[in-house]
Amino acid sequence: MRVLVLGATGKTGRQVVRALNSVDGVDVRAVSRSGGPIEDGTLVRFDWDDRTSWAPVVDGVDAVYLVDSQQSDAAQSMSDFARTAKCAGVSHAVLLSSRDAVVSHRPGDAAVVSAVQSSGMTWTVLRPTWFMQVFSEWDLFRDSIVEGRLVGTSGDGREPFIDTRDIGDVAAASLLDPERHAGKDYQLSGPDLLTFADAAGSIAQAAGTEVDYEQMTDQDFVAYLVERRGVGGPLAADLTQVFGWIREGRNAHVSDGVREVLGRAPRRFTDFIQEAAAQGVWAG
Ligand SMILES: NC(=O)c1ccc[n+]([C@@H]2O[C@H](COP(=O)([O-])OP(=O)(O)OC[C@H]3O[C@@H](n4cnc5c(N)ncnc54)[C@H](OP(=O)(O)O)[C@@H]3O)[C@@H](O)[C@H]2O)c1
Fold first, then answer.
1. How far is CA 247 from CA 71, 180, 256, in A?
2. Residues lining ligand 1, judged by CB closer than 6 Å?
3. Atom 19, ligand 1: which residue's CA is nearest?
4. What is the pTM of this model?
5. Nearest Cα residue to atom 40 of ligand 1
6. Which residues is 53 bridged to in the sheet?
């Protein structure tokens, strides 16, 4: 079986490649914009903005892991790419969406899902919560943590962060067994409901450093992101909105998708923090 993984250098794609490579008889085609060598093989070049790169990557593929372009035309490009894949004989697609999309009802998110669902391929939708790895792999948060000051607007609101390794395992299971997972829409979360202050405290303890959580108003947060962190205006507004959903308590529930698919509990936040601290990711 040959499986195509988009965004294979990303936080989830890398874990999907890892999980697929641990299964005998699976030929993984890992792709991203950059191309070149990766830990688990070689990347093939695929660029959402270069349509000549699309047909070669779907050739001979049975199933595909989809991460959208995160651009304003994401739904249209997903629709076109899904059609290209279907015409090339790809039969099953596993789409990374987000659980936030369920609480927010953002039309863009729904349009991406619907582009895949109407492609003619069978599909599985994954809706994870915020990733634990935003604290270790996303410069914005990791750099703030190293500086000892994690900033946000979520207050006492709690989020059940999920380990991207669990998303990789769920995606691999869904890609390799379409019969069982076709038509399923999985909500995926970690087991622990945490505030950002809880997260900062756990990281500080594990890393042996001081990390304070600072609560800001929405307006100050946008200014902080743009002026101090170099975040673009639209992303700053988007982040402020999703922090707001946490503050309002919309995300404060756990979901059982990991256990439903894998038959085991999702990884704990404390375990992730211990491992990341041992690897020195917050060592500065
Ligand atoms: N962060 C969270 O907590 C969270 C929670 C739930 C859902 N999500 C969803 O996760 C998605 C992001 O997935 P991720 O975190 O796994 O990815 P990511 O870490 O943001 O990495 C993006 C991946 O996409 C590739 N890429 C970027 N631009 C591309 C282009 N023009 N053409 C082809 N490939 C391109 C990158 O490849 P290069 O190496 O070439 O740049 C990289 O492999 C978003 O849709 C978001 O809504 C995120």
1. 26, 36, 22
2. 7-13, 32-34, 46-49, 67-70, 96, 98, 128, 130-131, 134
3. 10
4. 0.96
5. 33
6. none
Q: What value does the mean pLDDT take over residues 94-105?
A: 85
CB 157 within 8 A of CB 249: yes
Give me the percent of the chain exceeding a pLDDT of 90: 92
Nearest atom (ligand 1) to Cα of 70: 45
Q: Which regions of 189-273 does DSSP assign to beta strands (E)?
A: 212-215
pLDDT at 42 over 80: no
Report how far ligand 1's centroid is from the alpha carbon of 64 (Å): 15
Q: 13: closest CA among 134, 164, 198?
A: 164
Helix, strand or coil for residue 266?
coil
CATH 3.40.50.720 matches 2-129+164-189+253-267: yes
Q: Give the type of residue at 28.
A: V
CA–CA separation, 49 and 34 (whole Å): 12
Site to probe by mutation for ligand 1, drawn from 12, 31, 67 as the one with most ligand atoms within 8 Å of Cβ, is 67
Of 4, 33, 140, the one to substitute when testing ligand 1's pocket (max ligand atoms within 8 A of C-beta) is 33
Model confidence pLDDT, tens digit, residues 171-189: 999 999 999 999 999 999 9
Do residues 192 and 129 make contact, with C-beta atoms less than 8 angstroms apart?
no
